[in-house]
Description:
By secondary structure, this protein is of the alpha/beta class. 33% of the residues lie in helices and 19% in strands. Strands 18, 19, 20, 21, 23, 24, 26, 27, 28 and 29 form a ten-stranded mixed sheet that branches. An eight-stranded mixed sheet has the order 1-2-4-3-5-8-6-7, with helices on both faces. The protein is globular.
Amino acid sequence: MTKRLSFLIFLFLAITTTSAAQSTIPSPKSVLGFNPGDDRTVAGWSQITDYFERLDRASDRVLVQTLGQSTLKRPLIVAFISARENILALPKYKEIQQQLADPRKLTQNLQHDRLLANGKVVVAISCSIHSTEIVASQMSMQLAYELATAQDADTREILQNTILLLIPSPNPDGIDIVANWYRKTLGTPYEGKEPPELYHHYAGHDDNRDWFMLNLKETQLITRLLWHDWFPQIVYDVHQQGSNGSRFFIPPFYDPPNPNISPLLLRQVGLIGHKVAADLQAAGFKGVLTNALYDTWWHGGFRTAPYFHNSIGILSEAASARLMSAATVTTEQLARSSTRGMRNATESSTNFPDPWAAGQWRPRDIMAMEMISARSILEMAAKFRVEYLRNFYELGRANVEGNKVDPEAYLIPAGQGRDEAVAKLVGSLVDQGVEVYRLDRELHAILATPILRRTNPVAEKLGSYRRLANLTSSQMHEVPLGSYIIFLAQPQRTNVLALFEPQIYPNRLTGQGEAERPYDVAGWTLPLQMGVEAPVVMAIREPAGERKLTLLKDANDVRADLALALKKGDESPIKNPVKQPVRVGIYKGWTGNMDEGWTRYIFDTFNVPYTSVHDADMRQGALSSKFDALIFTSQSATQIINGNGVGTLPQEYTGGITEAGVKNLKGFVNNGGMLICFDNACDMAIKEFNLPLKNTLEGVRSSEFYCPGSIVALDVDNKHPIASTLPSSVPAYFINSSAYTAASDANVRVIARYAKDNVLLSGWLLGEDKLSGQIALAEVSVGKGRIVLFGFRPQHRGQAWATLPFIWNALSTAANNTSEE
Ligand SMILES: [Zn+2]
């Protein structure tokens, strides 16, 4: 719509409508029959979208848009909430945001001043990405209603100066999984328990670990909304934590900070967090905690991705009730609850000045705190409008201008093979708004590869971890046309660095000398995880005018370049890499195992057929007649065999594969079947099949060995068929994983070992000697069949594409080995 047209429409509406419409705006209660947050009530996804549709029709402050469909085909919506005149001029404000986000689009200072004078602070609030943290999704309706109807001066200021993008949930499927389960168990002994399945079809809780990889439809749709279209200055992600600790966490965060996050952003995060904490205190709420547990090191969360788009990411974590039922918390439980930055939840400290006394804890309490928090953030945004816009613009400008420390670019050279992985990597970058250029003419460049070494303990203490990776630079290289180049001189400089550099997590120990657990993973370097070569570009010989480069528009551009099939709609264009037809079963228990979900994601993405195998199928047997290969994803032996305890859930969800299932599994392997185990599941195979292997890391204290979510190097024997398509050195994902020694035995064939030298590639590794040289991947013959043991996570979070070929190769050798039982 042109500006003139929208202005005319605005004029027309201003004349013909009055605010009398306010009285006809439906309250959530009038539509749902209860107030959101009432004990033992829950609105499912169709009720939530229905309410927002009604609000859209009734209020000129609200505009609801459908972004697309979720994984299981539910509508994913966003509500724009602002003053009527702003809602009418949304295209204009979107354009202002896009200009502020990329200072190169502005040519004169005058233009910059005009944008700051006219722009609105865009705030995104997202509720219940974790579906069992259900209260915020209910709260979203009340928040929208109050903003749509309130007439007080403070609300008017918020509406005038900000545009709220309210996402009732970025995981609609999960809202229904939890709401249906809650209704089904209401009034039974299982009321308030969590459902025995993943609340995202593939990812479960890891749906909030996908914000740079963009595997999931939900992350793709919202990433487009946030980082292609609207560029919010503030993103608020509303979560819940366990029941027994603080009542509410709000930033500042705990250490360590990610060194690629601008210090200005960390300060702004802290400022908003303290405003929320103060407002909660003023309203009489107790138990608010800051500076604890949650850190900004990891990348890939809803509230961490904004830092790499020059935006402020805020997290809140309210204590949970029992879904929508009240919980009772005792003083003893509070006293036992301790975490980084909080000795226990009964003791006051500067970052936790007013502990909550034990008692009943209701959904209503959670909702009240979340409402105050949301309101508090909007007030800040409204009152400091120009400051937020200016800081956002200035961070983008600094990223474009650069500094003397950073290299010029990262390169993805053409002709390295693994075209699907290159297409996925480049596609993910483009989809999150990173600028990637294709070389249409050769260039000459000095290239370097970062080698991760901890050589400077003083610098580590000072926090300058990032530059500890030594660059081994070499001669001028000819870079072939068809290569991709990612310049650091772009608004997302810090994102490029955070995704391409090796992470060097600082050695952080507790007073007892144990490893201090990071909040999430320590390393994630994307080209390493994906097995894509991506050297640093130190300098380019050709001046800018002599280069021939094309900016990629979307993920299909790179697929077209590499002559791969294009992605149409939902369809995954990747051709099944398994060479022969093979009947694959993937074990799926009732314990909601994310590793199982991601495995299904990878199989669906690569169009490899499989069947989910449930506990009952395992107990029933006749496995050889149905499958050539069975995969057990990372899960403890106890969980696999015993499942959920009797009495903890309705009977159909309790008990694992049981001894009967183990017996059937033995029959399957002895009969010629292939059993593939990932990480923890190997323990079950080793014990039950009495294999001559031992996990050398079992029971080792974290003062001796610790490696949380890091990338390590494997030395690969590519003479073995399972490694035949892989290079001799492969990066693998290790997350408190396993390493083996084997007794000398003709039945054991080692396929890969953790590298002898420089085993850590990205992240954190304490006690390198415990890992180096140990077995990472082995094949063991049992009867007529084989067992393949992965010590690491070959498909971790759908990101570890470097090690996927091991799985496809194993399956390619599994076909037609089984005979009928
Ligand atoms: Zn959460």
